[in-house]
Backbone:
């Protein structure tokens, strides 16, 4: 590890930052990897400035979605969270996240006391009250929504219909803090990056803040979570609990000295999907408790893979563990930080990773480091030669100092992609200096000139090693090792631009810094992740048959008018031999909503009504049970990502079957609002 040299004054400076605290209901994905490396790059830069850095990450475990995930696996929430938290911790370590604490929200010794203290302070401020409530709740977001916030009645983030929840809960007086929050954010006292996200938050606040529920009944929470102080019938709402990790992770409630040392946070790094919780709910809770607000909320975008949203159904969820094993952590970090815009959505592909590794890392930094160390080893007995700078050398060094100032300014603004681009330009400049001065020629004609060039280049390489430590720490440390710099007091940002590696310094043995990747290696990573099921291509939704009539041109066909969440549609089905018209009228059914429109014997059909059929030819309507019009049918382990249209041939490739009265797609159970989809009469058979 690079040991950061600090001055006596800088030791008193602290810097505290956090990642978002991820749910552990599923495995970490590339979006988590992006957030980890962005946060780590900021942390390492601050360390190079001499700051005492604390970085907290962890696992958000007290959510209903974790309970549901555990139930589907047939294990307890404790077992699921313990197992998955270790996977997230392993990912953080392998991606190089230099965290000082991995805080689990199930930690009764360190986390619970702090969030219960936070609750108590908000309660003493008069900001917590109890009332009965009926609202629309999305389990995926762990959040209530107003009807006006739901396009077509579905969650904008998860594309599922929220469930109606009615119970008595505790509420937080968010409305009380509307004016204060607006003023704090507008003035940048609470800074939100980028400006577009700041404007989103201000727009949300100005639309009028509503008090929000901060507890769940023990029954609905299924006994999982942090108990509300002095009320055995209520558990804390996951977002009140999880946001508290940012203070419990540095000792709030158990270690006041540590908490006072690091709070307030300098930066919370989060994804845009959870902006409201961090920029509105969290600061309001802190204001209520009388605690200082974080200084900055850094908001990144989402990652697509080769232009598509990551989805298990199309097989493009690329496992970060696989990428690290295959290409190395620095190549992955470099691709994420240089290819994905710091504050916007971006696209990832292995093809781009390989191109960047080969044409930028190998050909630029790797080439410079290797040429420099080999030349010194061969021509100067592995010792840095003396330098006698001419005017051109001095101009070059000054220009590079200007470039390093540009890098510093960009990092101070947390513009990571732009800063890394500028680092690569710095390295290209050094390569050009090598090429223009041609020491392989002057070593024969003018050895003193060759000596000066290599003296300058050694210090340029030293500067690059410092600059890339926030972005590619392993490569940085390899450079320090090869040039034997670890015992020199140069491992600090302020040493950039200094000619601090002196003549006579003994360098180490050369080794390849970055290896060229053969393009054949791309085969298999996404494929390894591709599940057998293509169920998520389907858009299955509950509808209600409101009209049935016989087809004028086909004796076995009905024409049904079906009420859907977004309007009525006409469907033609071959159910005349099995059902009377009155048997169908008023029934709730499951519709393949995105089946390609077709004309059946001259009549338009927009969808397909699903039935269950056994080996004897008995037919049963696939009933949604207690489901309502607009509810979606999902499969365990398959993220919904329906195609715009699916053909009947594509539909036929999906194995929909009945086993012991349960409906499965390619071996995965189907669910409506968390309840397993079942048949009444057909015990074994197929869905068609």
Residues:
């Amino acid at each position: 590890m690079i040991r950061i040299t600090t001055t006596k004054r800088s030791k008193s400076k602290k810097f505290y930052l956090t990642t978002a605290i991820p749910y552990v209901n599923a495995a970490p994905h590339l979006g988590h990897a992006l957030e980890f490396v962005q946060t780590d790059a900021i942390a390492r830069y601050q360390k190079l400035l001499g700051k005492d850095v604390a970085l907290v990450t962890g696992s958000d475990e007290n959510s209903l979605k974790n309970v549901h995930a555990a139930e589907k696996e047939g294990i307890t929430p404790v077992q699921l969270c313990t197992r998955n938290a270790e996977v997230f911790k392993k990912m953080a370590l392998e991606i190089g996240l230099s965290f000082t604490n991995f805080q689990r929200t199930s930690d009764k010794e360190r986390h619970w006391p702090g969030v219960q203290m936070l609750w108590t302070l908000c309660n003493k401020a008069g900001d917590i009250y109890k009332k009965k409530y009926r609202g629309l709740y999305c389990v995926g977001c762990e959040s209530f929504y107003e009807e006006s916030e739901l396009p077509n009645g579905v969650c904008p983030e998860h594309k599922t219909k929220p469930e109606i929840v009615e119970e008595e809960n505790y509420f937080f007086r968010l409305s009380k803090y509307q004016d204060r929050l607006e003023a704090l954010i507008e003035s940048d006292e609470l800074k939100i990056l980028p400006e577009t996200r700041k404007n989103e938050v201000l727009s949300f606040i100005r639309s009028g803040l509503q008090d929000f529920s901060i507890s769940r009944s023990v029954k609905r929470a299924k006994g999982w979570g942090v108990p509300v102080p002095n009320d055995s019938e209520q558990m804390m709402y996951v977002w009140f609990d999880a946001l508290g990790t940012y203070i419990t992770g540095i000792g709030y409630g158990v270690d006041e000295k540590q908490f006072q040392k690091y709070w307030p946070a300098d930066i919370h790094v989060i994804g845009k999907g959870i902006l409201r919780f961090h920029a509105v709910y969290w600061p309001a809770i802190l204001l209520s408790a009388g605690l200082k607000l974080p200084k900055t909320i850094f908001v990144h975008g989402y990652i697509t893979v080769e232009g598509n949203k990551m989805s298990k159904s199309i097989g493009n969820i690329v496992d970060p563990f696989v990428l690290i094993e295959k290409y190395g952590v620095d190549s992955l970090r470099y691709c994420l930080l240089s290819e994905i815009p710091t504050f916007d959505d971006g696209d990832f592909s292995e093809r781009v990773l390989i191109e960047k590794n080969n044409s930028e890392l190998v050909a630029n930094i790797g080439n410079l480091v290797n040429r420099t160390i080999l030349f010194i080893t061969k021509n100067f007995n592995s010792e840095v030669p003396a330098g006698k700078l001419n005017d051109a050398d001095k101009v070059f060094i000054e220009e590079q100092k200007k470039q390093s100032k540009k890098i510093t300014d960009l990092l101070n603004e947390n513009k990571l992609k732009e800063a890394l681009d500028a680092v690569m330009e710095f390295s290209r400049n050094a390569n050009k200096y090598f090429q223009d001065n041609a020491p392989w020629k002057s070593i024969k004609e003018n050895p003193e000139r060759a000596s000066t060039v290599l003296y300058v280049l050694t210090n340029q390489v030293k500067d690059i090693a410092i600059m890339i430590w926030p972005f590619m720490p392993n490569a940085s440390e390899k450079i320090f090792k090869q040039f034997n710099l670890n015992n020199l007091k140069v491992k600090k940002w302020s040493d950039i631009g200094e000619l601090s590696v002196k003549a006579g310094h003994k360098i180490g043995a050369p080794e390849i810094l970055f290896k060229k990747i053969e393009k054949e290696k791309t085969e298999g990573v996404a494929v390894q992740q591709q599940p057998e099921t293509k169920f998520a291509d389907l858009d299955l939704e509950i509808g209600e048959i409101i009209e049935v009539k016989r087809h004028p041109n086909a004796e076995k066909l009905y024409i049904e008018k079906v009420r859907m969440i977004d309007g009525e549609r006409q469907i033609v089905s071959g159910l005349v031999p099995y059902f009377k018209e009155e048997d169908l009228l008023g029934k709730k059914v499951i519709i393949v909503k995105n089946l390609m429109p077709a004309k059946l014997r001259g009549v338009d059909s927009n969808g397909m009504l699903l039935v269950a059929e056994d080996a004897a030819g008995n037919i049963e309507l696939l009933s949604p049970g207690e489901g309502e019009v607009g509810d979606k049918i999902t499969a365990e382990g398959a993220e919904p990502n329906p195609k715009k249209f699916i053909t009947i041939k594509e539909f036929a490739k999906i194995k929909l079957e009945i086993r012991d009265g349960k409906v499965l797609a390619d071996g995965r159970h189907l669910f409506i609002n968390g309840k397993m989809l079942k048949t009444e009469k057909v015990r074994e058979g197929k869905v068609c």
